[in-house]
Amino acid sequence: MPHIVTVFGASGARPGSPEYDEALRLGRLLAEAGFTVCNGGYGGTMEATARGAKQAGGATIGITNALFDPRAANRYIADERKAPDFFERLRRLISLGDAYVCLRGSVGTLTEFSLTWTLLQTGAIPRKPFLCIGPAWREVLDAYCAHLPFRAKDLALITHVDTVDVAVDVLRRSLD
């Protein structure tokens, strides 16, 4: 059974934008590496990662939210799994993942990042690869460290990388 990589990122990224193109490449590279892509199933980087994966012949899972009905999953989601609310949607996104990748995003992405990190930090879920891609995450983590009391062992749960290519290489080594 292929490993599932849950990807978090911006819902507002539009085709042709740097965020969308980065997510499209990530989805393609994940599929080419044999991973299943899981995300929130809607637009932006969710659409882009699913699109890249599907175009490369990979599997895609979208965890959508019944509160958004009748809004459907994007057309690149092969397996839509509708959650009844935000809490269950987050639980499913996190519990399905064998690894997590955070792209640049907004409040929702920050929520997904924070909850995943907390669950890893407390041992509520087993240790799994948890990657943040790009300079925005470096700045976020630097701001956290400058103003909040983080322990080195908590920060060690996060792997920061600059590109999607490096992220997929890290995942290949970590999950094989």
Overview of this protein structure:
- This protein is of the alpha/beta class.
- It has one domain (4-175): 3-Layer(aba) Sandwich (Rossmann fold).
- It contains seven helices and seven strands, in the order E-H-E-H-E-E-H-E-H-E-H-H-E-H.
- It has helices at residues 18-32, 45-55, 86-96, 107-122, 135-147, 152-155, 164-175, and strands at 4-8, 36-39, 60-65, 79-83, 99-102, 130-133, 159-161.
- It has a seven-stranded parallel beta sheet with strand order 4-3-2-1-5-6-7, sandwiched between helices.
- The two termini are 12 Å apart.
- The model has no long low-confidence stretch (mean pLDDT 96).
Salient structural properties:
176 residues, alpha/beta, Rossmann fold, seven-stranded parallel β-sheet, 7 helices, 7 strands, 47% helix, 18% strand
